[in-house]
Specification:
Alpha-D-Glucose-1,6-Bisphosphate, Chain A, domain 3, binds magnesium ion
Length: 461
């Protein structure tokens, strides 16, 4: 069946595939799913990021929700984790955020949040899709049409929540200077105030919400953050922070203006959280660099690997009572606040660590071990993928130097020098190969070795 939900909700180009009719009907399906599941009156919170189609899609969505008898609370413009925090703490039955995260400005999307503030599981999304395609929507009697209300202080409630989880006095004593680049996204509503409240001197870049993203493209990758890197250096700031469009991810720049890759920040915070808790479980996808496991193990903690996808990481964290988790793209999860990627608490915790250790960010990052990670793609028609994966798994069992094979997501092959992960993409006709080694110059060799085995398998099917 055609799937609407991708790895991060429903996405498309505004007024083309992501239009008001889709927003209307999918919202009817979301409300129908929750009313049938909970068997009572329900309330769903809704919010948007800063895109030009936000009000168009939000009003269509609200209309669909109300038509089923569902009550709606409009939270306005806010980051995705802000909406997640409000859904959880205000005990709403679900949440809808109109966002396309880091995608270019012409895109928009719809993401559904469960009553506990986490992203939906694939099974829940499928149940909503079934209602959408069958058009089996509940329709309320005219007396029972839902009611709309507004919550005006959603960002203040969230900022207070984040502040309650960090040592503000400790941070204040250090007088840190932060350059903040919100990329004209939803973080503009939260992060400038938050950083000011913890006593940082803040230089703002692109902190006006603007759906055209005039400052920079929304994805916080090195090529989009030249202005931030330059400003940190010029201003002699202690660090730089860049957010994606819906502010669930944060990327850092050190005091020398150097970009810090997400796997290093993940390891730095994993180490900090395990040390603070004197042990504990850290959850991350199989694709994450071993630098996390190395530092977590050294501090007496344990890493549990999951399939790729932040909803899966969050749910395993709940089940295992983990102390920390996250992805290498800057999406870090601190369970003491909530079980979702959250750039606000991530920013506050990185600043707290700098204050506590009294070291510069570059010094802290230098303590994280270096690994070499290579990522490549191999084309393969979607219909062949399943058989290719099965044949490939059989083939590699007889390969020399294979220490362990893990089938959590695709296949992860541990060899003497490192590991290789081969997994089919969920959205494109490709396989992704990740290879990591500790020794320099070896990862590419390792990736290419398994690339040829995979290509040979694809050719023979
Ligand atoms: Mg995002």
């Amino acid at each position: 069946m055609h799937r609407l939900f991708g790895t991060n909700g429903i996405r498309g180009i505004s007024n083309e595939d992501m239009n008001s009719c889709l927003a209307l009907d999918i919202s009817k399906a979301i409300a129908t799913y929750y009313i049938k599941k909970l068997k009572r009156d329900i309330t769903i919170a809704i919010g948007t990021d800063a895109r030009t189609s936000n009000i168009m899609l939000k009003t269509a969505s609200i209309s669909g929700l109300l038509s089923t008898g569902c009550n709606v609370v409009d939270l306005g413009l806010l980051p995705t984790p802000n909406l997640q925090y409000i859904v959880k703490t205000k005990k709403f039955d679900a949440g809808i955020i109109i966002t396309a995260s880091h995608n270019p400005p012409e895109f928009n999307g719809i993401k559904v949040i469960d009553g506990d503030g986490t992203e939906l599981s694939a099974e829940q999304e499928e149940a909503i899709e079934n209602i959408y395609f069958e058009k089996s929507f509940l329709v309320a009697n005219w007396k029972n049409i839902g009611k709309l209300s507004h919550l005006d202080n959603a960002t203040e409630i969230y900022i207070d929540g984040v502040l309650s989880k960090v040592d503000i006095n400790l941070i204040r004593r250090r007088n840190l200077h932060v350059v903040l680049d919100c990329g004209n996204g939803a973080g503009s509503l939260v992060h400038p105030k938050l950083l000011e409240k913890i006593g940082c001197k803040v230089t703002l870049l692109n902190c006006e919400p603007d759906g055209f993203f005039p400052g920079r493209p929304s994805e916080p990758v090195p090529e989009n953050l030249h202005e931030l890197m330059k400003t940190v250096k010029e201003e002699n700031a202690d660090l730089g922070i860049a957010l994606d469009g819906d502010a669930d991810r944060a990327i850092f720049v050190d005091e020398n203006g150097e970009y810090i890759y997400g796997d290093k920040t993940l390891a730095l915070m994993g180490k900090y959280m395990v040390k603070k808790n004197k042990g504990g479980i850290v959850v991350t996808p199989v694709s994450t660099s071993s630098c996390l496991e190395e530092v977590v193990t050294r501090e007496g903690g344990k890493v549990i690997y999951t399939a790729v996808g932040s909803p899966i990481v969050a749910r395993v964290m709940i089940d295992t009572n983990a102390v920390f988790g996250g992805e290498e793209n800057g999406g870090l999860i601190f369970p003491e606040l909530q079980y979702c990627r959250d750039s606000a608490i991530t920013s506050a915790k990185v600043i707290e660590l700098i204050a506590k250790e009294n070291k510069s960010l570059s010094e802290l990052i230098r303590e994280i071990p270096e690994y070499e990670l290579v990522k490549i793609k191999v084309s393969c028609p979607n219909e062949k993928k399943q058989l290719v994966m099965k044949t490939f798994k059989n083939k590699i069992k007889t390969e020399e130097n294979v220490r362990k094979i893990d089938e959590t997501d695709g296949v992860k092959i541990y060899v003497d020098k490192g590991w290789v992960l081969v997994r089919p993409s969920g959205t494109e006709p490709i396989f992704r190969i990740f290879a990591e080694t500790k020794a320099k110059g070896q990862a590419e060799k390792l990736a290419n070795r398994y690339k040829s085995i995979l290509e040979e398998t694809i050719e023979n099917i």
